Structures are given as structure tokens and as C-alpha cells.
Amino acid sequence: MSLEALRNRLPEYAKDQKLNLGSLATEPVLTEQQRAGTFIASALASRNAEVIRALVAEFGPKLSPEALTAAKAAASVMAMNNVYYRFTHLVPGDYATMPAKLRMNVLAKPGVEKTDFELWSLAVSAINGCGMCMESHEKVVRAHGVSKEAVQAAVRIASVVHATAATLDGEDALAA
After folding, report:
1. Catalytic position from the list 119, 130, 146, 158
2. 134 given a catalytic annotation
3. Which letter, b or e, does each residue of 134-152 get, where b requires 16 or more Cβ atoms within 10 Å of its Cβ?
4. 25 contacts: CB under 8 Å, gap ≥ 6
5. How far apart are CA 142 and CA 103, in angstroms?
6. 0.70 exceeded by the pTM?
7. What is the pLDDT of residue 33?
8. What are the start-end ranges of the H helices in 62-113?
9. pLDDT in tens, 43-77
10. CA 94, 98, 101: angle at the middle one, nearest 5?
11. Please, what are the domains in the chain?
């Protein structure tokens, strides 16, 4: 499935998502690798098989094998970290000062530029709703020269991919 087929699968009431998917696919403020990796990491975080297949088919070829693996790794490690760090942030007590004792080696050696990996991690953290992680990743990418507009673009991609997944999940549930 292609991006265009995914857009066509959206119902008429989700016309804004169709339009946003189209414009974000060529978002000029991000590099091709940043844009493609953000789409893929966001699709994986959104957990809809159809969206994942379509966006990996569309954007996977625009990434090196290492970058594709890194985008997948960002979604994977953030699935763990967003739950853990959201807990430590929201629950009172000493949890935030305790060692996490979770392996996160990919953060140190993601296989791509740290800036891109951090941007993908930020997008996934936005989908997963971890404020602590969003703040941390935004701070890192901004310190590495990523503009506010690029940060916003990555989060816009995450929001539209997630909305697309939610819409298709809802449509599939209604059709069952």
C-alpha cells in the first residue's frame, strides 16, 4: 500500500488528515531522512498495521538500512521509556531519583546522527504523551541546531499519523 492508497482509505470526514498527510510528506523544513524516519517511527508508535505497512512502503526506501533500523529502534525504546518516565513524572515519591535499571543502549549508538534519532524519539514521545521525554528530546535537538519549525514539523507528522491510525481503527471497528 502506498501513501496515496492510505489517504484514499480515509473517510470523507477525515479529509483534513488526507490533506495533511499529503503536505507533510514533502515538508521542506526537515531533511528527507528526518521526514521519512519521523513517518515510520510515528506509524510504529500508532500501532495500526495498515498505517505501518503503507508508511514503511512509502518512506522506507528513502532511508538507508541503518536509518530504517534506527527509526524502528526509536519507536521501540520510546514505547518502553515513555511508560516508565511518564510514571516517574506523575507519581509522587522517590521514583524519579531511583535508577531506571532499563537497558537503553540504542540511545548512545542509534546508527544514525543523534539529532535525527532524538527527533524521532520526540515524535514518538508526543504520540505516547510523555511530557518528561518530550522536554528532554526537544532540548537535545534544539541544542544540536534543529529549528523550532523542524521540531513542530516532526510533531505535526506524529499527530497526523496517529490521527490516521485512530480513524482507521475506528472505521474497522464499526465495520466489524
Report:
1. 130
2. no
3. bebbbebbeeeebeeebbe
4. 3, 35, 39, 58
5. 25
6. yes
7. 98
8. 65-90
9. 999 999 999 999 999 999 999 999 999 999 999 99
10. 150
11. 3-175 (1.20.1290.10)
